[in-house]
Design goal:
The complex is a heterotrimer of chains A (77), B (222) and C (488). Chain A contains 2 helices and no strands. With 77 residues, chain A is mainly alpha-helical. Chain A has one domain. With 222 residues, chain B is mainly α. Chain B starts with a helix and ends with a helix. Chain B has 2 domains: 31 residues, no CATH class; 127 residues, no CATH class. Chain C is 72% helix and 1% strand. Chain C has 488 residues and is mainly α. Chain C has a two-stranded antiparallel sheet. Chain C is built from 18 helices and 2 strands. Chain C is globular. The chains are: A mainly alpha (77), B mainly alpha (222), C mainly alpha (488). Chains in contact: A-B, A-C, B-C. At the B-C interface, helix 1, helix 2, helix 4 and helix 7 of B face helix 3, helix 5, helix 6, helix 7 and helix 9 of C.
Chain lengths: 77, 222, 488
């Protein structure tokens, strides 16, 4: 193996360890964050599961997309 | 945090892309810095062999045959020396295959002869009575596409610096000259070794049957 | 909101893709049954001269079922689910409606050319990426147009939050695009040789081991992002909708999504164990394949738990049966895959029919079952008619389930038998069996497999008939059904 290749190999290992380590930490932090914020009542994630069930055009919208509203107003004028 | 992404599709898509590209960045790309180097003494495929490789691809031999001998005793006993990376340096594409309905072919040139192949391709049951391989009789009458094979040699020489001689160069005239001087004599030798007069006659008339090119390729696998 | 009262979802594009799902399903699986029978009865190789051999037909089978049947089903569902969960109708945008039709048109052109070229033996020879460069360009074009349609719908959405299914459709689009581009880097020979030979011929940009690495990075992830990710997108919508139960845990779906995205791409190396790619990469392929069980089972368990308290629906509704069995088969094959990736198991399994068995319990049990269920769920809504026959659907379910079981069990036994025979040595260390011994012994299993495949194909014909009758002769519905699909 040439020197350049060795060098690349080294960076590759560093990048792998750092990247994967970071991903694992973020991921576990995220799991804790999800469950904790729901327990505290800050967020309710499960309501989004209803999106598949209430999917008629005239079903109630959970959270409006502001962009689509702007467009609607524009059309009205 | 992540939940924010679900409301912002653009950043969501970027996020997904980063996560899936990461593996490729680490795992696949760096290998291309170290070019796969040919092992010592490895010659590029001759144009006839390339034409044979095209037949191998066209009739899709890789559906049932591998070209990869794994480093186990049972495999090396059966097929010979295990495969090494440098042996594939001129294989574009690689033809390892993923299924062995038939045996591995990576070193088939060591233990089969052209006339065995001739009989086998004409009627597999004549040499292996229990064979389930179909006969490939059409290869005895279809003419191999030498021009495309030659074009391939020119291309890999130009683009990837594959070490071909100076007589491999672009243009119809160069091809015709090369065909007459190099390809046809090589094909004639193979056709004669296959011990079938119809094949010899065809080659003498300037047409190389697919099966002759294929056998040239198989003989090369050693 | 008043303007919405008259507005409806536009299913015209969904219908087109549903029809092609049915047609490609029949064609692809019929070829499958033929080539399976050829292995048991080799004389069947000579039905169509040079074009009828096992080797020439096999890529046709794989490409038609993957890129014909499965992709059609995925895209039908993408336009259907996409409109609904985003609460946007294609009728609202002439541009998007045009793009969706253009998408279908291009797709049909590519599919037709693909079938013709593969039958003629024009191939780049990389598995599941056989198409030559002119077709590759058309594929990229089709893909871009489909992406414009997908992101266009997202851009117009009324609902701010993307539902779970949409994440998976986005990932499907992006990953396949990236992998396809890299794997199909080719150099056309015609332009470098002064116009010699076939103009459509090309050589791979990569050689030997590198080529293998890129190919299986693609090959594995074609399975991941065509056969898994968009199918998960489908089940996350259709199972809750059909059962009327919201998904068991939205949080779990988030976690499994990001987990799957991160882990899946690493596992490609497991196709190259004991080959000439670097050792650490093989190990990586092995390890990540095992880790992959977690996010895969995360989704599957989430689906099963969605049915909590409503398991009676399993006996009453054949569509629920299809979907629950699909997620069960998903669990089976995502457990089986990692087992086969363990180095010592791989030494036996690789190159044998066990791999074929693994693929098929995944695709027949999971992918195709989910596609059937999705199409049958959509049919009453898009045609505004009742499903033609419930009993036919039930019969299809059972006959196909028996087919799948026969298929994978025979292939497991065949694969392990052959793998063991290849390595069997006598007391002096000599090989016991010649290669042909290990082929002859497989005859009964090949026969059982072909029979299992035939049962499955019969099921496909039942499905096609049921679909056709639903579209043309089902009882008309006054109102769109909310959850359970009405069936006669």
């Amino acid at each position: 193996m040439s020197d350049v290749a060795m060098e690349i190999e080294k960076y590759r290992i560093y990048m792998f360890l750092i990247g994967t380590g970071l991903a694992v930490v973020i991921f576990y932090y995220y799991i804790i964050y999800l469950y904790r914020s729901e327990k505290k009542g800050k967020k309710n994630y499960e309501k989004y599961g209803r999106l598949a069930l209430d999917d008629e055009l005239d079903s109630e919208i959970l959270e409006k997309n502001p962009k689509s509203e702007e467009k609607k107003k524009g059309e009205d004028k | 945090m992540f939940h924010w992404l679900e409301k912002h599709p653009f950043f969501f898509a970027v996020g997904v892309f980063v996560v899936i590209a990461y593996a490729g960045l680490i795992e696949v790309l760096p290998n291309f810095m170290e070019k796969a180097r040919p092992i010592k003494g490895l010659k590029p495929y001759t144009v006839l062999e390339l034409a044979g490789k095209e037949v191998y691809k066209k009739d899709n031999c890789i559906a049932c045959h591998s070209q990869l001998i794994r480093p186990f005793k049972a495999e090396t006993d059966r097929y010979g020396q295990y495969s090494m990376s440098g042996e594939y340096a001129y294989d574009r594409p690689f033809l390892w295959g993923s299924k062995r309905t038939g045996p591995d072919l990576h070193r088939v040139g060591r233990y089969r002869t052209p006339d065995w192949h001739a009989n086998h391709m004409w009627n597999p049951k004549s040499v292996v009575p229990d064979s389930i391989m179909p006969a490939y009789k059409h290869q005895f009458t279809n003419v191999a596409d030498l021009e495309t094979a030659y074009a391939e040699a020119v291309t890999v020489k130009k683009v990837f610096n594959t070490p071909y001689g100076d007589d491999i160069k672009p243009g119809k005239a160069a091809f015709e000259k090369y065909k007459k001087e190099k390809i046809l004599p090589e094909a004639l030798k193979i056709a004669k070794a296959m011990k079938r007069d119809d094949l010899v006659k065809m080659v003498e008339s300037g047409k190389v049957p697919e099966v002759v090119a294929l056998v040239a390729y198989l003989e090369r696998l050693k | 909101m008043q303007s919405n009262a008259a507005l409806e979802y536009d299913y015209s594009i969904v219908k087109l893709f549903m029809w092609t799902t049915v047609i490609f399903g029949i064609v692809g699986m019929a070829i499958g049954v033929l080539i399976a029978s050829q292995l048991a009865f080799p004389d069947l190789n000579y039905l169509m001269g040079e074009y009828g051999t096992f080797s020439r037909l096999r890529p046709l089978h794989t490409n038609v079922v993957i890129y014909g049947f499965t992709l059609s089903g995925i895209w039908a569902s993408m336009y259907y689910v996409g409109q609904r969960v985003l609460k946007v109708s294609l009728l609202e945008s002439g541009f998007l409606r045009f793009m969706s039709k253009l998408h279908f048109l291009l797709y049909m052109i590519v599919a037709a050319l693909m079938v013709v070229t593969l039958a003629l033996g024009i191939t780049a020879s990389k598995e599941y990426a056989q198409m030559e460069w002119p077709l590759d360009i058309l594929v990229v074009l089709t893909w871009v147009v489909s992406g414009i349609a997908l992101f266009g719908m997202i851009g117009l959405r009324r609902e701010k939050t993307l539902y779970i299914s949409m994440w998976y459709y986005i990932a499907f689009f992006l990953a396949v695009a990236m992998l396809y581009l890299f794997n199909n880097m080719e150099v056309p020979t015609y332009f470098f040789s002064g116009g010699l030979g076939a103009w459509y011929h090309s050589v791979s940009m990569y050689a030997g081991t590198n080529d293998a690495l890129v190919q299986w990075w693609w090959g594995h992830n074609a399975v991941a992002f065509v056969f898994t990710v968009p199918i998960i997108a489908m089940i996350y919508y259709f199972l809750p909708k059909e059962s009327g139960q919201a998904v068991y845990s939205y949080k779990l779906s988030l976690l499994s999504f990001w987990g799957l995205m991160f882990v899946y791409l690493w596992a490609g190396g497991h196709h190259l164990i004991w080959s000439t790619v670097p050792d650490w990469m093989q190990t990586m392929g092995s390890v990540f394949s095992v880790v992959l069980i977690l996010p895969s089972w995360g989704s599957a368990i989430n689906m099963l738990l969605t049915m909590k308290g409503e398991w009676n629906q399993l006996t009453e509704n054949p569509l629920i049966k299809f979907m629950i069995l699909a997620s069960t088969f998903y669990m089976l094959s995502t457990l089986e895959g990692p087992i086969q990736s363990v180095k010592s198991v791989n030494a036996i399994a690789h190159f044998t029919d066990w791999i074929i068995g693994h693929v098929h319990d995944g695709v027949l049990g999971w992918v195709a079952f989910m596609v059937f269920a999705a199409v049958m769920h959509m049919a009453p809504r898009v045609f505004k008619r009742e499903i033609y026959s419930k009993s036919l659907l039930e019969a299809q379910f059972w006959i196909q389930t028996i087919g799948v079981v026969l298929y994978f069990s025979s292939m497991w036994i065949a694969g392990i038998t052959q793998g063991m025979m290849w390595r069997a040595v006598d007391e002096y260390g000599n090989l016991v069996y010649s290669f042909i011994d290990t082929v002859s012994v497989l005859h009964p299993y090949y026969t059982i497999r072909a029979f299992g495949g035939l049962l499955y194909l019969i099921g496909v014909f039942m499905f096609a008939w049921n679909f056709f009758k639903t579209a043309t002769a089902g009882r008309r519905l006054e109102q769109e059904p909310r959850y359970k699909s009405p069936m006669a």
